[in-house]
């Protein structure tokens, strides 16, 4: 019964997120045909993916049967893990302007500040108590944040920096839908402090108002982090 209830909750969350995104502007190219299953075997790569021969498409192309969304994924040292379903592992999403994520949190786990350069995101909490928010662009830099519990949904506007943290000792899980088949992700700290080769520490020191040796220590920690 517990498994069945959990499955129903996941389905409801995905339906809610999908319906919400139907009202959003699609940032990917609009489809000019009913479907365009991405042809992963093609070597052609431009702004998108070529279509599979429609005469060879079957119903199985439209069904994602991988169980990565059903099971909890191992978390990273910061206590979270994001499992994405994009056009790269579900070719039927090609030209449809949507993708999915499952986010698992350990106790007090963090999904650090990041943004998706090609999409908006709708997040629904399935289990746990999540502090969730986003920050608008300068000069306002306005924070919108709130504690979400099971069944609560929040939207992160297009390309805005957002984050989550599990506020409890128990594990938490959320699902999200994004308005792009391949939204991308840029984690702020990873990008700035973990680049290869590293950004000049003096530049980061002045930018973040930190001592240069502190910046260098942070950069070193990213180099050796898994």
From TrEMBL:
Coiled coil: none
Domain Cupin type-1: 66-216
Recorded superkingdom: Eukaryota
One example GO MF annotation: manganese ion binding
Gene3D superfamilies: Jelly Rolls (2.60.120.10)
Main location: secreted
Protein name: Germin-like protein
